[in-house]
């Protein structure tokens, strides 16, 4: 087990006949960490999750939760993971507290302690006020929080949440974000899938991007940006549009051709692998040239850029 890893896969591979759905996936998530697990449709996310929760067996490689092998000991692993699928699966005519009590019984929690446990998980999931409401009458955002509460009943160290922010309005999304960050702060290890990438980027410590069954990039967003391209995107903002051609000429002399003038935005953008001291010299030259530099900054790659780059690279590979 890697140092402090709570959830770990090593060279995890799943074949369906000759089709490789998952190809030597190696990831690890530590205690109190949130991993964003993303990839285009059919990338292999659900396959990975199914193996982790003991619902599918790997063809080769291993998956462990708190050191327990998911394939060898699926019953024990189910006690170590709280899994929230992307569908709720409610039961009509049940109040929230009854619904959670029912699942608590299914997890084998003793009857005597269940009401207290139900209250605790409702509080943790920010759903304390829903206890007497009928499940079918809850809004989507409320259901998502009850679903989180359900994953917490047996107090597992690791949670796998499939699209927890899907279909939530902005207010509910913010509340969901706070719940997830709160769980990590209590030491839970979270794996979260989402197609709402800006939202995911706000809560994750690290991100793993898979496509066509293979891990394509992993790490913090800055690390992923570096893995995908050694070039940084820089932007010079000017005080007036007329100075854009002159500024672009200065930049071109330093970095060559990868320069994009954008007069409508008073901007010059360029991609470069040059170190900071050379960029500092470029800034000095721009200022000395009197082009009116208002800002000189690196444009951060966002998760959507990274996702698109990875998907396109994977599609390109498959087409070759
Ligand atoms: N039981 C199966 N038999 C054959 N192929 C399968 C089976 N289950 C999944 N696959 C294939 O494996 C690949 C990975 O599927 P998976 O469901 O893991 O993707 P995903 O990343 O979860 O996608 P999505 O975002 O669409 O849910 C897909 O091409 C899928 O068609």
UniProtKB/TrEMBL annotation:
Annotated ABC transporter domain residues: 7-237
The keyword ATP-binding belongs to this UniProt entry's keyword annotation: yes
CDD domains: ABC_DR_subfamily_A (cd03230)
Matches recorded under InterPro entries: AAA+_ATPase, ABC_transporter-like_ATP-bd, ABC_transporter-like_CS, P-loop_NTPase
Superkingdom, taxonomy of origin: Bacteria
Gene Ontology MF annotations: ATP binding; ATP hydrolysis activity
One Pfam family cited in the UniProt record for this chain: ABC_tran
Coiled-coil parts of chain: none
Stored PROSITE patterns: ABC_TRANSPORTER_1, ABC_TRANSPORTER_2
Protein keywords: ATP-binding, Nucleotide-binding, Transport
Family statement drawn from the similarity comment of this UniProt entry: Belongs to the ABC transporter superfamily.
Name listed for the protein in its UniProt record: Putative ABC transporter ATP-binding protein YbhF
């Amino acid at each position: 087990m890697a140092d402090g890893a709570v959830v770990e896969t090593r060279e995890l591979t799943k074949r369906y006949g000759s089709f490789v759905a998952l190809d030597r996936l190696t990831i690890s998530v530590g205690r109190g960490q949130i991993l964003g697990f993303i990839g285009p449709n059919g990338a292999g996310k659900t396959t990975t999750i199914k193996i982790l929760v003991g619902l599918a067996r790997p063809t080769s490689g291993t998956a462990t939760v708190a050191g327990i092998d998911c394939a060898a000991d699926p019953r024990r692993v189910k006690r170590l993971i709280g899994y929230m699928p992307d569908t709720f699966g409610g039961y009509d005519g049940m109040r929230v507290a009854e619904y959670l009590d029912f699942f608590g019984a299914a997890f084998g929690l003793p009857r005597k302690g269940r009401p207290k446990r139900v209250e605790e998980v409702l509080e943790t999931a920010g759903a304390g006020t829903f206890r007497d409401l009928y499940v079918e009458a809850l809004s989507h955002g409320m259901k998502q929080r009850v679903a989180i509460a359900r994953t917490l009943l047996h107090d597992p160290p690791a949670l796998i949440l499939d699209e927890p922010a899907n279909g939530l309005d902005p207010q509910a999304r913010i509340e969901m974000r706070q719940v997830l960050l709160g769980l990590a702060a209590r030491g839970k290890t979270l794996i979260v899938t989402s197609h709402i990438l800006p939202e995911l980027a706000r809560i994750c410590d690290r991100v793993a991007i898979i496509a066509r069954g293979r891990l394509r990039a992993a790490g913090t967003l800055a690390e992923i940006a570096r893995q995908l391209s050694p070039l940084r995107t820089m932007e010079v903002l000017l005080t007036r549009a007329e100075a854009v051609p002159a500024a672009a000429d200065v930049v071109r002399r330093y970095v060559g051709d990868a320069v994009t003038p954008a007069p409508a935005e008073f901007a010059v953008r360029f991609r470069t692998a040059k170190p900071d001291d050379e960029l500092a010299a470029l800034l000095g030259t721009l200022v000395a040239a009197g082009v009116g530099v208002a800002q000189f900054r690196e444009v951060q790659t966002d998760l959507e850029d990274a996702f698109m780059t990875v998907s396109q690279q994977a599609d390109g590979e498959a087409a070759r």
